[in-house]
Give the backbone structure.
Amino acid sequence: MNFEDWQIIRFKKLNSTNDKALEQSSIAKGCYVIRADEQTAGRGRRGRVWQSLKGNLFFSLLLEFKTENIGELVIISAVSLYQSIKQINPDADVLLKWPNDVLLNGSKVSGILLEKAAGNYMVVGIGVNIEQSPQNSDLLYQATSLKEAKINITSDDFLTLYINIFSNNINILNTEGFESLRLFWNKNAKATGKEILVRQEKRNIRGIFKGIDEKANLLLEKDGKTEKITFGDVFYEE
Ligand code: BTN
């Protein structure tokens, strides 16, 4: 697949590009990029709010993808963000954080929210802090923007770059399989081999971060055993 395969639909204002993509999925043919200049009810992971600040990029990819391979899609989406930023500035300090975060200078620069849509469709909702980042004190993670890191690119150019890189990674998945993408993620993840904390609703688990497995589960070594973690929020011990 390549850039030309995507039908790009741009709105001035939407509640949430994910909601629009979910709606579109029942009549979808091919794949789409649903973009909004302004988002009034951006949604984040695990029921959180995504603060959609002016000048930032909000879009959702709507594509056919097997639900059981959702882990691969999570990794491809995040790796493509990592590669987009590195392509603009190869010296940028970018690291990946499980499951689908990208850290720039140690702070969250983007968010990804995957949702199952109609039929075989999946929605990959992406927010990129291009111009500004939320700075309120009750944030789960510190945030930053490309601009704050002196990476200057317009949201239009970033989106074009991202779609090209994402399409290329889908081609890699389809021709070579997931392994090279998984290894790329592991190689560029933060805190591999170090102690991390995984917070879940019912428990906190501390262990040594060992990367991700072939289903994109987080591998946590604890008391000599490796535990597979399927959900949760990761925190670093710094
Ligand atoms: C997270 O880190 O919690 C995920 C945030 C995902 C935000 C994006 S912005 C575009 C799309 N529309 C939404 O309502 N959410 C995603």
Remarks:
- The longest strand covers residues 6-14.
- The CA atoms of residues 13 and 38 lie 5 Å apart.
- The radius of gyration is 17 Å.
